[in-house]
C-alpha cells in the first residue's frame, strides 16, 4: 500500500493515495487459544481479506511489567496471518494502560468535576494531558515501533483507539497546571487573557496565570464563555499533542508506514489542525444501528450517511476501521441486528460516501469482558455463517473494483459549511436555546439524503469550485478571509446561503461591535441585522441543550402552550412557513432583493430573507433557522434554480443514490437500505459493475438491501445533456 495523502492539503475532495482497498477486520488473537490461529488466517484469506488490525488494547501483554517487553504472542500471530497473505495494522495500545501503570502512577488518571479519579477496569481512564502518561505513551510506542520496524507484514499504524469517545474532560491538578501553561503560551501576558476572557465582567480577572481556574470547578453560576471555549481548545490541543508524540516516533522509525486514527464519538478534536495534518488519512468507526444515534437523526441509512459525510468533510476520503457487522451490546446499550444483506449494504454505503477501505468489526466476538455480545464475522462457536458469507462477497467484489473506486471523490452539488472547531465550541459555550450549527445543518442534510441530492460538509477554506451552492449554518465566528472565498465562489456562479447570527461573535467569542453580520458579510449580502430575538421552536416544544456527538444530541424542555404565539410566520414567494428559533429583522441595501418577509405581529412586512446578485451567482441571507418546512421551500425556490436536484428523480424512499467521480470516470451507487425489493426508474445508462458488466439504463430492480454500482457512460450522458453531466 502506498500513501502520500500527507503531502496533499486537507480537503473533502482528497482521495487516499493508495492502490490497495483495505478489507478485513479488527482481530484479537489474544482472546482465543492458539489452536484457532491458523484456521482464522485461512478463513480470512478464503474470504478475500487483506488486512487485520491488532493490539489496540494489548499493552498489558506487550509490556507485562514496567520496562519488560514481550512481543511473542503478536509476533507469532502476525506471522501466521502474514503467511496467509493478511497484512497487519498495529495500534498504539494507549486507550488501556495496564494496571501496573495506573497503580504505580495514579496521577495519570483523569479526574472528574468532583475531584474523583477515574477507576481502572474499563478504558480511556488515563489523562492525555498528563506528562507522566505521555512519557509512558512514548515509551510503549517506541518499543513497539522499533520491534516491528523491519516486519514486512506490518503496513501501518492506528494511533490509540477512538480518542475521547469515553470522555475527554479532566479537572485535577495535573490538568489545571497544563491548562495554565497552555494559556500562558497562547496569551503571553495575563492582561491579554483578561481582555480575551472579559475579566471586568463579574471580577473574573486574574493577576497571574497560576491563579487561573478550570471552568465549572465549583462555580455557583455560569463561568465565562471564552474561558469555556479555551478549555475545549486546550483539550483539543492536548489530544493532538498526545497523538503527535506517537506519530513522530512512528514516522521516524519507518516512513513507509501509513498512520491514521479511528474516530468514534468525537469530542475535543480540531480536525483542521495538527490532529489531521499529522495523519495520512482518518478512519471513522461506523455503527449505524446504535439506538441513540437512530433516535436522534433518523433511520439507519440516514445515520450512516450523516456521520460519514461529516467525517469526509474533515479531511476527504477515509477508511472505516470498524464497520458494524452483527448486533452489538455493552452492558448498558444494545443495537438492532442487521438483516441478511444489510451488512454488505452498509459496507457499500461507506464506500459510496468516501471510504477507501472497510474493516468489519470484528473477526469474532469475545467470550469475556464488557462486549461479549458485540458480534463479529465468525460466531462464538467458531462457525462462519451469513456474516462471513457477506463479508466474503463484499471483499471479492470491492477488490475486483478497486481500480475504479480508488482515486475518486464523492460528488457534492450542495456543500454545508462544516468542520470548524471554534464554531462548534462557541455555540456550545452559549447556545441561547438555538440548535447547534450541526443540528441545523442536519435538517438540510436529511432533506438531501431523502431526495438523493449530492450533498456533504465542507470548510470555506476548502476548494468550493466543484459546488453549486454553499449553506452556512449560523457560524457565530467568521473571518474576513472566508468572505473573500465565498465572494469568489458566488462571482463564479455559485449560490451562497448565510444563516442568521453568522459572523456575530469574534475570535475571542465576544459579540462583535459592528452591526451583524459584520462589515465584510454585510457588504457581500447587502444587509445588516436591525434586531434579533428568540422564537419558540416548531410545536412550542422546547429549548435545546447541546451535547453528544457533533453537538447533535439535544434535550428539549416542554414549554407552556402560550408560547405558541411567539412563532412568527415567514412568507417566501407564494409559500408560508412557521419560523423556528430566531427572527432577525433585516435592513436592506439598495440592489439587494427581499425574497422573504415576516408575516406576524410587530415584525409583519419586515425583511427576513434577501438575495443579492454577486457576479454570476448570488448571496442569500436567511434571518432565521431551518425547519423541515423551510428546507422544502429553500429546495424549491433557491436550490433547484441553482441546479441542485436529485441525482435520480424516480427513486423510492429508502434507496440511496450517490456518485464517486474523478476526471475520467463516474460511478453511480444505488443502494437499497430497506428489507424489501425496490424499483428505480430512469437510471442513466452505464456499465453495471456489480452485475454482469453490461451497459444498461432505465428501470432498475433491487432486492432487499440490494446494491448496484453503475459506471456512467460519459458519451451518453453528454449527448443527453443530463443533469449529471
Ligand atoms: C468502538 C470501539 C471498539 C468497540 C466497538 C463496539 O467504539 O472502538 O473497541 O468497543 O466500538 O462497542
Structure in words:
- It is built from 20 helices and 29 strands.
- The protein has 4 domains: 22-172 and 224-410, Glycosidases (TIM Barrel, Alpha-Beta Barrel), CATH 3.20.20; 182-211, no CATH class; 414-642, Class I glutamine amidotransferase (GATase) domain (Rossmann fold, 3-Layer(aba) Sandwich), CATH 3.40.50; 655-724, Golgi alpha-mannosidase II (Immunoglobulin-like).
- By secondary structure, it is of the alpha/beta class.
- Strand 27 (678-688) and strand 28 (695-702) form a beta hairpin.
- The strands form 6 sheets. The chain has a 9-stranded mixed β-sheet with strand order 13-12-14-15-24-23-22-19-20, sandwiched between helices. It has an 8-stranded parallel β-sheet with strand order 6-5-4-3-2-1-10-7.
- The longest helix has 29 residues, at 225-253.
- The radius of gyration is 26 Å and the shape is globular.
- The structure holds beta-D-galactopyranose.
- Beta-D-galactopyranose binds at residues 161-162, 165, 264, 285, 322, 328, 330, 361, 371, 374.
Major beta sheet summary: 9 strands, mixed
The percent range for helix content is 25-40%
Strand ordering within the main sheet: 13-12-14-15-24-23-22-19-20
Task: Report mean pLDDT, rounded to a whole number.
Answer: 93
Essential attributes:
single chain, 725 residues, alpha/beta, TIM Barrel, Rossmann fold, 4 domains, nine-stranded mixed β-sheet, 20 helices, 21% strand, globular, binds beta-D-galactopyranose
Concise summary:
With 725 residues, the chain is of the alpha/beta class. It contains 20 helices and 29 strands. It folds into four domains: 338 residues, Glycosidases (TIM Barrel, Alpha-Beta Barrel), CATH 3.20.20.80; 30 residues, no CATH class; 229 residues, Class I glutamine amidotransferase (GATase) domain (Rossmann fold, 3-Layer(aba) Sandwich); 70 residues, Golgi alpha-mannosidase II (Immunoglobulin-like).
